Amino acid sequence: MTFQIKNLNKSFGSKIAVNNISIELKEGQILGMLGRNGAGKTTTIRMMLELIPKDGGQILWKGRPFSKKNVKIGYLPEERGLYAKMNVLDQIIYFGMLEGMDRKEAKKEALKWLEKLEISYAAKKRTEQLSKGNQQKVQLITAIIHDPEFIILDEPFSGLDPVNADMLKSVVKELIARKKTIIFCSHQMDQVESFCSQICILKDGNLIVSDELANVKSSYDYRYLELETAATHLKDYLEHKKYDFTQDNNRYKLRIPRSEKIYQLISEFGEKFELHGVSLKEPSLHEIFIERTGGEVIA
């Protein structure tokens, strides 16, 4: 494996923040790292970036210690890390030079990315003059200007309107196409599903899920059968049979054990009720997350 976390531990006093977690990624894979607030995601990232020391375990890149000496790292933090009074272009160049680029190369790349993200007009503006969404674009450019091999994106779509979110999605897709190895942290489960081949879920410092997304879904004990009908007595029937279901007007969503003979069940419903629509769906990542962590996603 290209990237490995082995038996990583971190405590703050008596509080265990990260408890013996292990994660592996191949080069070019993108991992969705999920968890409610306080699950251990930020602590793990800070240990990866050597911002705080680990208590035990290893973090490796191609068998060597994971550090800026051995791998080019890009990091987009959830919190803004920009200088409010500095103009945008100078700021991006400065961050590029911190990563070893010369000024000419950094300026060329900065102008390219400003144009790509449609904020060339803001090059000479102070960062504080930009909207929250445009500041997020600048922050992303500073994270990837030096063409890193390994990228950590922490809530990259925070504060973006739909148009700008789509623009940043295209950048993430480009990074994936260029075989960058990425850790993607987000509370937006639909984004994780669209980008990530692997997921891990942390809860109270423990790694409770770690696998390919397709395997996680197929190993889930339930699927969802969606029925659409004008028959008002379907609700009474489902309640009488003690089905686990939700209703939205004339649409019903049933939680069906994977062991159930689903097509026989669909046939039985079709004989008893006039159905206008039937679909069978795997659980969404959002539904799996809620069940495994015991609560809604909290941003």
Automatic annotation (TrEMBL):
Residues 3-229 form the ABC transporter domain. This is ABC transporter ATP-binding protein. It holds the Pfam family ABC_tran. Keywords: ATP-binding, Nucleotide-binding, Transport. GO terms for molecular function: ATP binding; ATP hydrolysis activity. The keyword Transmembrane does not apply. Belongs to the ABC transporter superfamily. Signal peptide: none annotated.
